[in-house]
Design brief:
globular; 10 helices; about 0% strand
Length: about 140
């Protein structure tokens, strides 16, 4: 594990600069990682810890948020699914002390990518329609190999 990250770092440090198409190509993977992993965090928070997610973002919004996170990775147009509105909802959930406490349980109680935190801290940037990954986004993106 981690081999592709080492190759990415070597390419950045010793190879030619990353191509625009190469960076643009990781956008769907970044968003899928956010959807899949944040959904894992939220489900653990709700089902195992008893966090009332609706109390954090509004009971009228939480079902739509969970539905978006659940179905978006299966859609071919995943790039367009992370709207600024959904990004704001994710940011609100992430900012809550309850979700932060659940995040600290990962590894012991459930599995989620460590790099998810980087993406959640910048979720509003990533949710913008003109989002373009940084070199750090590229390095922290995980693709199963």
């Amino acid at each position: 594990s981690g081999k592709s990250t080492i190759f990415k770092q070597m390419k950045i440090n010793y190879g030619k600069p990353l191509e625009t198409d190469e960076l643009r190509g990781v956008i769907p993977h970044i968003k899928k990682n956010i959807y899949d992993n944040f959904l894992t965090v939220l489900k653990y928070a709700s089902d195992e810890v008893g966090v009332d997610l609706g109390a954090i973002v509004g009971s009228d919004r939480i079902d739509g948020i969970l539905e978006a996170l659940t179905t978006a990775p299966d859609r071919p147009d995943t790039q367009t699914e992370l709207t600024p509105e959904l990004g704001q909802d994710i940011a609100t959930l992430w900012a809550s002390e309850e979700i932060k406490a659940v995040w600290r349980m990962r590894g012991k109680k459930y599995q989620a990518l460590d790099s998810l935190e980087h993406f959640l801290v910048d979720i509003e940037r990533i949710a913008e329609p003109d989002y373009f990954p940084t070199t750090e986004d590229y390095l922290l993106n995980r693709v199963r190999s």
